[in-house]
């Protein structure tokens, strides 16, 4: 079946962690994939996570069958949306699901379950960028590991072959905007996320360097966007626009789990 590109979402993680920075390109690498293991690092400080914009791109693995009766189809869709809404209402305590829905016009996007077939992640070795250290790539992998342990049905493996990766993580010296990370994901017409790109900065916009703890905090926030989360106003969560925490909060985890307990799509 031909793939149809539908929509992309850009989440600007402006982590003014004493930070902000720029954009990096992708390259092609080859090698066997390595299964993600679960080391975590520490980070402290404050980060600004940013705004959201929409564009166009993505793939639909199989078009929905044509409906003989459009009214019946609309009724079915509305019935399903109502059932999802009731599930969310019943389980939303301790989450920021309502903020997520308000920010997306009552729509949810997420990956299909990827446990048996993990998402492949390529982390760019940015050796030519001033200030880049191999330990930064380790801190980025820590962020994927922490989200994998959160209870969402996603697993990650790392590969040196960017051409075969579902997710690309690249580096920039700094952004021109007051941000330190940026995530773009693409979804199909059924709101399944099909691919994603994360860009992390090495320096604040003013040129001051980010350390390992800041890089890990920014990566945790951006992988949260990749998982399907948006911002929350509660500064106790990693998904707050200004990140002041070191790890995923109970609300971060509960919101992601709730997101993955229902099908994606419009909830009204």
Number of helices: 5
Question: What number of structural domains do the residues give?
Answer: 1
Q: Let me know the CATH homologous superfamily.
A: Collagenase (Catalytic Domain)
Describe the strand arrangement of the main beta sheet, using strand numbers.
Answer: 2-7-6-8-10-9-1-4
Structural class: alpha/beta
Taking the alpha carbons of the first and last residues, their distance comes to 29 Å
Total strand segments: 12
Arithmetic mean pLDDT? 79
Q: How many whole angstroms does the radius of gyration measure?
A: 18 Å
Low-pLDDT windows of residues: 16-62
Oligomer: single chain
* Largest β sheet strand count, sense and barrel closure: 8 strands, mixed
CATH architecture type: 3-Layer(aba) Sandwich
Share of helix among residues? 25-40%
Strand content: 15-25%
Helix and strand sequence: EEEEHHEEHEEEEHEHE
Write a structural description.
The protein has 268 residues and is α/β, with parallel strands linked by helices. It has a single domain (7-59, 110-262), classed as Collagenase (Catalytic Domain) (3-Layer(aba) Sandwich). Helices cover 26% and strands 21% of the residues. The protein contains 5 helices and 12 strands. A hairpin with a 5-residue loop joins strand 9 (181-187) and strand 10.
């Amino acid at each position: 079946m031909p793939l149809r590109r539908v929509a992309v979402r850009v989440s600007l993680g402006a982590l003014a962690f004493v930070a902000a920075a720029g954009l990096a390109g992708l390259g092609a690498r080859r090698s066997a994939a390595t299964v993600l293991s679960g080391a975590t690092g520490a980070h402290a400080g404050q980060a600004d996570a940013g705004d959201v914009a929409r564009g166009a791109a993505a793939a639909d693995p199989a078009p929905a069958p044509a409906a003989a009766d459009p009214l019946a189809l609309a009724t079915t869709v509305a019935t399903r949306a109502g059932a999802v809404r009731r599930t969310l209402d019943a389980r939303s305590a301790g989450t920021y699901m309502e903020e997520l829905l308000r920010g997306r016009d009552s729509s949810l996007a997420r990956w299909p379950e990827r446990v048996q077939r993990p998402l492949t992640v390529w982390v760019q070795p940015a050796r030519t960028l001033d200030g880049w250290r191999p330990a930064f790539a380790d801190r980025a992998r820590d962020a994927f590991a922490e989200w994998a342990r959160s209870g969402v049905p996603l697993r990650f493996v790392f590969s040196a072959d960017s051409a075969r990766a579902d997710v690309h993580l690249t580096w920039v010296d700094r952004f021109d905007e007051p941000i330190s990370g940026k995530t773009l994901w693409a979804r199909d017409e059924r709101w399944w996320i099909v691919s994603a790109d994360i860009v992390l900065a090495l320096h604040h916009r003013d040129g001051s360097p980010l350390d390992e703890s800041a890089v890990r905090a920014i990566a945790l926030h951006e992988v949260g966007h990749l998982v399907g989360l948006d911002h929350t106003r509660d500064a106790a969560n990693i998904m707050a626009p200004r990140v002041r925490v070191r790890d995923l909060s109970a609300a971060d985890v509960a919101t992601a789990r709730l997101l993955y307990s229902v099908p994606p799509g419009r909830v009204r």
